[in-house]
Amino acid sequence: xxxxxxxxxxxxxxxxxxxxxxxxxxxxxxxxxxxxxxxxxxxxxxxxxxxxxxxxxxxxxxxxxxxxxxxxxxxxxxxxxxxxxxxxxxxxxxxxxxxxxxxxxxxxxxxxxxxxxxxxxxxxxxxxxxxxxxxxxxxxxxxxxxxxxxxxxxxxxxxxxxxxxxxxxxxxxxxxxxxxxxxxxxxxxxxxxxxxxxxxxxxxxxxxxxxxxxxxxxxxxxxxxxxxxxxxxxxxxxxxxxxxxxxxxxxxxxxxxxxxxxxxxxxxxxxxxxxxxxxxxxxxxxxxxxxxxxxxxxxxxxxxxxxxxxxxxxxxxxxxxxxxxxxxxxxxxxxxxxxxxxxxxxxxxxxxxxxxxxxxxxxxxxxxxxxxxxxxxxxxxxxxxxxxxxxxxxxxxxxxxxxxxx
Length: 406
Prior knowledge:
The chain has 406 residues and is of the alpha+beta class. 44% of the residues lie in helices and 12% in strands. The chain has helices spanning 38-46, 68-80, 94-120, 127-151, 160-178, 183-195, 205-208, 216-222, 225-234, 241-249, 270-284, 296-306, 313-323, 392-395, and strands spanning 2-6, 15-18, 33-34, 51-55, 331-334, 338-344, 354-360, 365-373, 386-389. It has a five-stranded antiparallel β-sheet with strand order 8-7-6-5-9. Strands 1-4-2-3 form a four-stranded antiparallel β-sheet, covered by helices on one side. Helix 3 (94-120) packs across helix 4 and helix 6 crosses helix 10. It is globular and about 60 Å long.
């Protein structure tokens, strides 16, 4: 039986099934092992890992610890309670914005690639070009955030660094907008999101793309990228304090376990805390050379748990309302037995988005794709509801093929 326990409950003889730190690096070669000494427990605690999953069939038990199913059910209930806050109404339909969003994303990725190449050559960032891209991203978010947010989950492993920066910019702009921050602050945050990983230009590709676990020396090189990026941007004319702050501090954590300055929550600016949330969310939902990305809905629930220690809980909850309990692009199973992809949030209930249905799990066949508004009743284009989110790999389907219905 699998159970969730706090790191303070760990004892020699327990079997670690999962270190539950998908966004962090840890000092262990494996995620699953028997605890054989107190030193291993101290390493877990020192790494900032606050909870783990143990396998009671393979090691010592904790009688009053919740099972994984019980812990997940409790999290799901808390997450569902966040869904009542209205979302921002859309200006255009997804179909109207989708092709334009594809073009904007492609342009932005090309710009980030150029910025990285210039940084390797010691050149300053050309802010005029960056500003134009951020303005385009912001305009697309204002028209229909679902288009760019849905595209943000698509990342080629070879272009991850560039596409990650575009996604962080997109998500951060959407986050600022949902919090009703002023236009200039939102714009500056977008600049910071697009440029936050500029320092990775100085990290060797062999380290960035290494398929196995990094050595401690390699970790040290990677951990330098916020300061390296800060130094590059500081030498670039016109880059303001908000992008500089986001670049330097997007890896700081609420409990002081982050880097480069190990700042605690009171010392980290609100926008840097927002950037940290967005950065981790995008990173753990992406396929990398060394791990498989989580479904977006699962990632949000993990971040909700981690926010108790590593992120600002209130900001994490606001981010979840921003992208939706079932984010755009999420594969969901409906009560009718059909699979669907979420394409648009509802204006008043995040539990009843618009979805495009395309597959019957009962007959195990594709069906003619069409849109269902889960907020509507039977006979009015609705009459169904989400049972749970699903893994595309489980069903061997690509839900993003069905983001648009012809």
